Amino acid sequence: MNQDADMSVCDVGDDGDVTPPFVFARSKAVTRDDFNVFKDEIRNMIRSLFSEQKQETKHFTTTLVEIKNLTSNVENAISLLSSQYQELNNKVLQLETKCKEGNEQIHLLEDRIETLQIAYRKPNFEIKNVPKKQSETKSDLVDMVLRLSSTIGCDLKREDVKDIYRVRGKKEQRNSSIVVETSSAMVKSDILRLSKAFNIKTKGKLCAKHLGFLTSEDTPIFICEQLTTKGARLYYLARDLAKSAQYKFCWTAYGKVYVRKTETSQVVCIKSEAQVHQLLIKE
Description:
Blueprint: H1 3-9, E1 11-12, E2 18-19, H2 32-120, E3 124-130, H3 138-152, E4 161-166, E5 176-182, H4 185-201, E6 222-225, H5 229-245, E7 249-253, E8 256-260, E9 268-270, H6 273-282
């Protein structure tokens, strides 16, 4: 066995005794002062930790307070906004109600005005597409109407014409309408009835020569009621309805517009554009 290896396992004393390898040299004894120093260091360390925790806790508490205040401010702001929104919503509802009431009043007034206009125009009729004479006077217009009356076999007198005037047309429009205000709705009805009968019986329908024109005498003329602006619009739509949906009859009477599908169908009075659209959808 190697001697160096044996010496690494155990030491031999001066007197020849062998010291076992697991026996260590005794360390220096710990004194009370050393223990106190150690205790103070531990105490200081704990104090330092507590101090840091206290600072962190204080900071955390301050942050929580700030968050709480911020949350409270946000809640107050939301509450205020909610209150303002509710107030605005109530105002909007009130305005919508007033607007609806206002629209109903407007429709009511429009209907009343329409009724008054229809009543005012009951004795009136219109001659459309009439050529215009140079330096035309009201007396010339009355003579045209009297000539027309004689042609269709109506005994119309000059005093039956309360007023007469030509409607202003577009500048490029050479032929415009003449409005005739008669003494009564019955006179107007006779003119319309006899004019229709003349066009049915006579091969040559009413034209400018029947008003006494010597030039442009073949220009066709049309006798009809004087409708209101709304009535004229409804009559235009009703004629389109009659063509599209194959309504056999479409006419006006005392300012109102009527359509009828067949001879046995129910007569429908057209009162609005929406009604015309509904009739088109049904078809």
